[in-house]
Amino acid sequence: MTHLTECSKAPAFxxxxxxxxxxxxxxxxxxxxxxxxxxEDDTPTCTVQACNLRDHFGALKKKGITVLGVSPDxxxxxxxxxxxxxxxxxxxxxPGHTIIDRYGVWGEKQLYGRHYMGxxxxxxxxxxxxIIRKIFLKPKSKQHAEEIMKAWEELDARx
Length: 159
Fold this sequence. Notes:
The protein is of the alpha+beta class. About 30% of the residues lie in helices and about 30% in strands. The protein is built from 5 helices and 9 strands, in the order βββααβαβαββββα. The strands form 2 sheets. It has a 7-stranded mixed beta sheet with strand order 2-1-5-4-3-8-9. β6 and β7 form a beta hairpin. The radius of gyration is 15 Å and the shape is globular.
């Protein structure tokens, strides 16, 4: 799984979003960022997770949290996914696994006894200074926004 740890500097990245715009980590300096990696657009669990984040987007935004999704899908597929489910956040296309590899979320998986390589659903909470504050190795897709908000509240309470 990921080689990154909490309290380490988030690796710099850049890629293109569903609209073809260039996006980089530097664009989010001074903001709280949720960088969530998911295997594939429009699949059951990925859709549940994205819709949970969509449904709580207002509450996340109110708390100053920006949401950014990353998967190996192409820009066009992201655009269809965004439109179909009315997703209010940015999705980065990473078909070459540049960001995925940098964050260490690609690896061996198992399904029904079959082993294969794939993306491990993982979420990173990155603070205003670009430091990873929390890593969810197995986010709860149906309650992911709630997990995120609770984690930020706990981090704030420690300050």
